[in-house]
Amino acid sequence: MDVPLAEKLRPKKLDDFAGQEHLVGVEKPLRVAMEKKHVFSFILWGPPGVGKTTLARLYAKAIEREVVEISAVSAGKDDMRKAAEKGGVLFVDEIHRFNKAQQDFLLPFVEKGQLVLIGATTENPSFEVISPLLSRCRVFVLKELTINDLDSIKQKIEKELDIKISKSDFEYTANLANGDARQLINLIEVTYQLYGKINEENINQAMQSKHLRYDKLGEEHFNTISAFIKSMRASDVDAALYYLARMVEAGEDPLFIARRMVVFASEDVNSPTALVVANAVFRACETVGFPECQENLAAGAVYLAQAPKDRRSYDAYMAALADVKALGNLPIPLEVRNAPTKLMKDLNYSKGYEMYSKKGFLPEKLKNKIYFKK
User: Fold this and answer.
1) What fold characterizes domain 219-306?
2) How close are the terminal C-alpha atoms of the chain, in Å?
3) pTM (2 d.p.)
4) Which residues contact 188 (CB under 8 A, 6 or more apart)?
5) Which tens digits make up the pLDDT trace of 96-113?
6) In this structure, are strands 138-141 and 42-45 parallel, antiparallel, or unpaired?
7) Which fold does the domain 147-207 belong to in CATH?
8) What CATH number has the domain spanning 20-141?
């Protein structure tokens, strides 16, 4: 079976690695770690096709340990146990897909140094990796590859396929790849196999459809909805409509978009009317369905983007929630406690309570706290 071009071109040494200069450049952390054979667990967080697997392999080679590669999607406890028994490097692709039980199972092996864990993720590890495991790992953030980064890969492709790709055709392909080296290589390889020449027309034919990188369970899903929300937050109607159109065209569930708009209405607009509009959009998506409901989504997005923004309720609640988490169940003032029995009344529960009192009812420790800024 032929080896895919992307695998053939995978760097065998760090000097051939493209991009991520902030991590592998001279005197940068991962290069220093490999050169000095520092042994530690870490997580590589970044978009697809930017070198996470390659860096894991290069690191394992540098510290002279066997690497066991597993995917969080299909790996079981036996896979992790076998890797620990070998005392090598365990590379977990898509570690954000590990549930809490799987991560808890892995934790003791990392704590005791029975294995070196390298996790790869497209999602923010702060949200997806349990705190005890995260605290035992360094996190390195990888960036989307630039045109210049991809240009060094282009030269290797040209040499391997014995072809020449014009600057304009390469830039066209690189833009389609969205900073993903694997996607760039695969697209060029397929186009060359089918047509023997790399140009814009052949690339489009090879793709056979508009190339929108959008994984409903992956990073681009979250990037696009994030851009949509932030555009509405900035009252940028045009950007909001653009990102909405990208999601709709890529096949996103309209109810997912509408659901986020309902959240946005309370979080960023804080108007009863906005919540009514957002709920109406959600209901319309339920009853009308796609494709007609995209018009309802567009109308809702325009309204929410143009509406005056007010995050005071959201910010106030989050501040209160932070105190609850930090301080626990502080004693509730006696006068606002429930007093359904004589015993509780004898203990002064509800004593002195006035229905419309101006007196504050926060716990004593927070009596001067102001959450909502008027």
Assistant:
1) Zinc Finger, Delta Prime; domain 3 (1.20.272)
2) 69
3) 0.57
4) 5, 157, 161, 165, 173, 198
5) 877 777 888 888 888 888
6) parallel
7) Helicase, Ruva Protein; domain 3 (1.10.8)
8) 3.40.50.300
